[in-house]
Design brief:
Four copies of one chain form a homotetramer.
Chain A: E1 9-14, E2 20-26, H1 35-43, E3 62-66, E4 68-69, E5 72-73, E6 78-83, H2 105-111, H3 129-144, E7 149-157, E8 160-161, H4 166-170, H5 174-182, H6 193-205, E9 212-219, H7 233-241, E10 247-252, H8 255-258, H9 263-266, E11 270-273, E12 276-279, E13 287-288, E14 291-292, E15 297-303, E16 313-316, E17 322-325, H10 335-360
Antiparallel strand pairs in A: 1-2, 2-6, 3-6, 4-5, 7-8, 7-9, 9-15, 10-15, 11-12, 13-14, 16-17
Chain lengths: 362, 362, 362, 362
């Protein structure tokens, strides 16, 4: 089940400490693929030199080994591989004895009967999100040609909580938000980004980690994308998003807060503007009854604090003995930052797929 | 795409004002099916005489037309149909002119090129959740034989917010919570249930509606259920849950609140108790890296206030003219209440499916 | 797995001796559905009064319980049920003791651990093909609007073997072949139909059965339908066809005979006729490399003689004792005859699905 | 749709003249993978030095880039790539002007709007079957541990037709047939193998090609594998087989010939032998009602003569002008020979998948 759903779909493979991570993408012919652009998209999630992401130094150079010919997709599967260059497997020897708190190690050990590749989290590693972004780049090019654009950004971090401006629900300037977001190491368009940066540095210095939320806005989707059962736009998006390591919640529109409103306040009333049906508010987040309403699709993901911390934790080893555990290795104090493009580009995969399905039903 | 994913899967059909709603269930042979018990489960979501749910009077009597022989599933598809008895289609004639605010009407009109059955929300109606519950009953019997039990309950409603006791994350008494929940019209095990009941009555009297959240706990899942990409336990559950009308958010464990913690507080450290690996906390909600940890699986859904309200709303008709809109018909002031068993039983379908897939990999 | 693949897809349910057989169809909105026409299509496979099909007297009246509104599909699932009126379950009591030779009884008994509905073959019954034809009728209407038409007919029966005229490979008159085929009880457009009719009567009188082959021609498919791996047009068609009870072989174009040719004779050379690329021969049967070439798609199915015969057979009972076995009940001496519309209409389901997928990739 | 169906499944990628061909395999943990053994299996389909296969000199060295750790599958996706070393792209420049007779070129050109990689047949190339065999090797190891073995062999070639001994339907010696088959360049266990070899040499010298049939026997499958609708054992096998380039027909048991028998002759009567239910004949080919009977599964595939021949053919170019066409390049005079292991190992993928599904339903 390493293949996502639908028609525009991806099959992912690789382990943190294997030779390559990669992805195979099923997609239509004629999508332009520019390797420099793909590289620059990949670099958005790479551990940089900002000091607030992992020190693991991966250049993440994508190689295409099938499905692109003369700069365009051929209509046959596109396979992209990315070499793992800087793995320090030794750091992980201890995992043979102690399952990391907050991590999948123990469950994976049971599930795979001890055959799992435990090094660096194996195929559970966030490293698998690199090929996902590469695949999402192709999806984003497909969508760009159809007038659909997306942006993700950090909307809260630790105790720094930002409220999304109501204008962004109705008529977002995707380009502008993107520019701000990706110009900052902490991937947030809000003025609090300096505070956020400092918070990450602080938890990093403590050998600790911190989580928060990422908001995504997708503009340009016409009404009617999705199926009420069992392929609602929310179903398909959340299904993809909850495959990204560390995501613990997904909400659409005003989400958990909004549902506590009364119906008369929550309902998005229609208006006609420039001959188009629009809603005055967008509490539904661009999806009603599981299908797109024509308003911007907006959702928020909760991303947990990184499990791997160097701070000492009390836990037990596989023999059941109490131990003090401190993980060496190079970890992100805040995976949120690198999850921003991962969410943006993996959402693009879903939207491209839903677009194709919509065409099939026309 | 009216078929859910995997091996234990359901295909749903019907419209609010058609002759039947129904479901076909793919499932293993030998699951006991007791029609009285199925009926009593269905009655959990039926509009009752409590005064706080819709006045639409549907008895929801399930008929099995295939796949059950001598009281057990045969291994071939089980089809269950439920007759629609009390539809008042006339109430909905206005929908030909005015798309309801907050509803899917407009988007469906575009999507289906005007061929949609608009009466009572057609196949977007909450009425489709009746067969989903009937299918979930079969899943719950399958799981019961494997020691897995589940409960859902209202955990917040309007401004009444309840905190889940930490014991319920670690060692829940499912039976006890279920008993309390379903003995109360408002489907909440908390002492605030009387306040909740009064709040629903108040918004009902105003011709308005209110939303809130539902928490679900599933106990007895062994470690290793789910696949990191793209069939994480969270992916599969959320995919199903976001098909249920009105759900706008899904979070696991401590969810959106929890992620703002530091990693050292969030990480669930291991302990060995009665020779079993358990975690001392369960902020992860029983899922790490997309697979079950062996701890209770716990998640919370945000359910929006009912869109259909009789209170007057300002909106536009299909010609783009401003109108005052007030919907006749019999609506729930709070769909949350009836969504409780829908979430519980549809989650059971997913868990039964994931269980089968786990067996396949053994 | 009672759901076929892709986008235009069907979920089948029911047993020979249950209350209903039926099908749920996922399909686009706006397909015209005429109940009288559906009925007349269904009657093509019904046991008639010709004396050469089963005496089981089923009128096969389809009822639509969802997905059709004002004479058109709504875009939501169409469910069709057909009541079982004339089942004689008593005839099958012996199956509790003796698995029928040539039948699935024994394997089903092992597979379903004794929970199977053994009466009349349960859900293995040819009766399940009635809803398949009803679903195929909808597919055929979808295809008709897109200029695609199909016909199936008996091309051999026992020792009566007919050669398909080469013109039918290149430029078939579907309408004419259909007219001839369905005007004859034995469903063959060839002049040997009277000999075929007599052969069926002869084996019927012996309490025996006979098999043969059915050829199908589908015209109007443009080049490019199908995917080389793993959704070739042949893969998708054969996958559906081999679900029809009694089919033991599927071949495309000149099939098993043709492959023994030399390449220079087999290769279909191109020609330009009326500005269209056509091939002068069609040994490939309209499919090369797994995708349609634009020529008529032509394939032949081998259909085994009916397993259920009243002639005495030597076999063993479940206790392993030798017994003489003769099955009462009302059986077709030649299921081939009734399989003709089943193949034609189930192939339409596949082509409709492949058409939708082709649109998605455009 | 480059992913096969079910649970044990493969995603294929690559083009004839790209840098790599490869495959990703979803499979359970703990399957032993021996790279030398995989290499020797791959060499069964490689163009050898026998003079009767293509002169393209590919060593086909598989590299595993994920999913195998310490010699066993981890339970996560296994990706295998094989470098293309000896492609002569120049040979194919003419394909920009002339679509090859009998080939997919023209249809692919229409389907992919001119974006296809036409060199060497692109992703339609038989070269894609190399990774399929590598994946099938893993499936065969999975099956070996469960007592299931398979063999494929040439059963007819041109006008040399062999009849399968009836013993092979009932109680085949797989090991012995395999040994004979793979010890001969022409991959046939029959004494006529020398005649076959000479026939291939003759058509090779003529610049022509020849086709024939391949029979496969799979032993050790217990009763109950498969689902009547729409995952019959025949459906699943044929779906895979018809993805292999050049396969034009698939028949089970006595196939097209057998169906012309009377039912009393065709029906496989039961016998009890060593406390096991066996049938005395196996006309059904080990499958009845779509599920395995416990007898050997036996099927035959028709494989067309190679399309690419150097003999001059009359056809038209893309401008519609008549041309004489003769293809340079290095082609197999008889792809049948190399298709033998491809069929054997790709069938193993299907059986491994069906085995997993059977376990899920237990």
């Amino acid at each position: 089940m390493n293949t996502s759903r639908g028609l525009f779909r991806v099959t992912i493979f690789g382990e943190s400490h294997g030779s390559y991570v990669g992805v195979t993408v099923d997609c239509p012919p004629g999508i332009p693929v520019d390797m420099e652009e793909m590289q620059s998209v990949l670099s958005l999630r790479s551990p940089g030199k900002s000091g607030i992401t992992s020190a693991r130094n991966e250049e993440d150079i994508p190689e295409i080994i099938s499905g692109v010919f003369n700069g365009f997709t051929t209509g046959r599967p596109v396979t992209i591989v990315i070499k793992n260059r800087d793995a320090h497997s030794k750091d992980y020897d201890i995992l043979k004895e102690i399952p990391r708190p907050g991590h999948v190690d123990y469950a994976a050990h049971v599930k795979y009967s001890g055959f799992e590749d435990y090094r660096g989290g194996g195929s559970f590693s966030g490293r698998l999100t690199a090929p996902l972004v590469a695949a999402g780049y192709i999806a984003s090019k497909y969508l760009e040609l159809r007038g659909i654009t997306a942006v993700s950004f950090v909307s809260s971090l630790g105790d720094i909580l930002e409220k999304i401006p109501s204008e962004w629900f109705i008529n977002p300037n995707i380009e502008d938000i993107r520019k701000k977001t990706y110009s900052r190491s902490v991937r947030s368009p809000f003025d609090s980004y300096i505070k956020m940066q400092k918070l990450v540095e602080k938890v990093r210095d403590e050998g600790n980690s911190i989580g928060g939320t990422i908001t995504t806005i997708i503009d340009g989707i016409s009404p009617g994308m999705g199926e009420p059962f069992f392929s609602s736009l929310e179903s398909e998006l959340s299904s993809m998003l909850f495959s990204i390591p560390g995501i613990k919640g997904v909400e659409f529109g005003t989400g958990f807060e909004g549902v506590h409103m009364k119906g008369s306040d929550f309902n998005d009333a229609y208006n006609v503007s420039n001959d188009a049906f629009r809603t005055l508010s967008n509490n539904n987040g661009g999806v009603a009854g599981g299908i797109s309403t024509g308003m911007p699709v907006i959702f928020r993901c909760a991303v947990r604090p990184t499990s791997s911390i160097s701070k000492v934790q009390e836990t037990v080893n596989y023999s059941g003995e109490k131990v003090e555990f401190s993980l060496k290795g190079r970890h992100d104090p805040c995976i949120l930052i690198r999850a921003v493009p991962v969410i943006e580009y993996s959402a693009s995969i879903v939207i491209a797929d839903m677009y194709m399905r919509m065409m099939a039903n026309a």
